[in-house]
Design a protein that fits this description.
Distance between the termini: 21 Å
Helix content: over 70%
Order of helices and strands: HHHHHHH
Strand content: under 5%
Shape: elongated
Largest sheet: none
Number of strands: 0
Radius of gyration: 15 Å
Structural class: mainly alpha
Oligomer: single chain
Length: 132
């Protein structure tokens, strides 16, 4: 199992795949959030804070592990990307009468990215971060 985790999260050969996966997941989030009634339906199972936290923490994990450089450089790249993605998501939501843009949701997205990157920076071996 550790070798599978290493392959999925740290193998440099899969860096492009992790970026692509993050972008596809982000587009899926935006599209699913634009379906009338979808947010209300899933809201029965999880609150908006939980949904935003899990979704954007996952995106941050993918972006962090796809990035190159030190833990700080990867964290800045991931948090920056998540801030942009979250802003785009909220901007798109502002066009739908049954949705609305919310700065609080964007802040939850950014906080999820910051916490995720901090944990990854502390947990991942320094040698792995330097190699990437």
């Amino acid at each position: 199992m550790p070798s599978l985790l290493h392959l999925l999260l740290l193998d440099t050969r899969l860096r492009t795949l992790r970026y692509a996966t993050a972008i596809v997941l982000f587009l899926a989030i935006v599209i699913a959030g634009s379906i009338p009634g979808a947010r209300a339906d899933i809201g029965q199972y999880a609150s908006g804070v939980v949904l935003h936290s899990l979704a954007y923490a996952s995106l941050a994990l993918l972006w962090f592990t796809a990035s190159r450089g030190s833990g700080a450089a990867r964290s800045l790249a991931a948090v920056g990307a998540i801030a942009v993605m979250g802003a785009i998501d909220e901007f798109v939501q502002s066009f739908f009468p049954y949705r609305g843009a919310d700065v609080h949701d964007w802040m939850v997205d950014c906080c999820a990215a910051i916490v995720t990157c901090a944990i990854l920076w502390l947990v991942l071996p320094k040698a792995e971060l330097a190699r990437g």
